[in-house]
Structure formats: C-alpha cells, structure tokens
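Hi Y.,

Following your request, here is the sequence exactly as I used it, all 147 residues.
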Amino acid sequence: MLNKIIKRALLGFIYGIFIGQTILILESLFKGDGSFHPVSEYLLAHTNTELAAVIAQYFITGIIGITFASSTVIFELDRWSLVAQTALHFVITSVVMFFAGFFCGWFPHTAISTLIWFGVFIVVYIIMWLSFTLYYRKKTKEINNAL
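Below is the corresponding structure, written out as tokens. Let me know if you'd prefer a different format.
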C-alpha cells in the first residue's frame, strides 16, 4: 500500500504542476492582454519577488497533485463503505484545495468568496466522482462479461 501511495504521489506532483501551469496559460489567454500572468496579485504582494511567488505556486500545485493522486488509495479500502471513502477523500482534498487557494490568492479572502470557492469545488468534485464511478462500473462490467 505504501508503494502505491509513493508512486501515485510522485506522478501526482507532476500532474499537479502540469494542470496548474495549463490553467495559468488558459487564464492568461482569456485576459487577452498578451502577457503571461504566472501568479495572482495577492501571492505576488506576499512574497519577496515574482520568482519566489512562482516557486511557491509551483510547489503548491504539486502538493495538490500529490493529495489528489495519493488519496485515491482510500477507494481501495474494501472494509470501508463507498460513502465513507468518498467523505474522507472529499474532506482531505477540499481542505488542501482551500488552503492552497487561500495561500495563492486564487480567490478573494471574503466569506462570500470562500462559499463560492467551496460551491465550485463541490460541483467539480461531484462531476469528477460521477465520471470515475461510471468509468469503473463500466470496466467492472466488461471484466465480469469476459469471465
């Protein structure tokens, strides 16, 4: 189990950075001013240099990737119900995402922004959870039919 977590964490770090950088590129394209915006103004204001802000965000997106990838082992705990697995996974990932978003300044630090942040996270989480659930049910059915 520990080997699975380590392998998933390493890949998750890479995936997290890749996804984070892709989002930054897309956000910069949507701003339409021809500039690359590597970090939020908030993070830039709270670090010494732009380089320090970029490095901090780089590792934070890697930590998000580690969290999402390694926490999937929760779904392999056969003695736990799917509800318990999902609840624990949701709590772990939402807490990490919240603190990452808060620290990086991905949303304003207001109560309403925090509620919106969690609302969006919940919607995205549900969509992803349903997608993976349907995918693995289909795979299970294919395996059972092959037997």
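The radius of gyration is 18 Å.

Thanks again,
Q.
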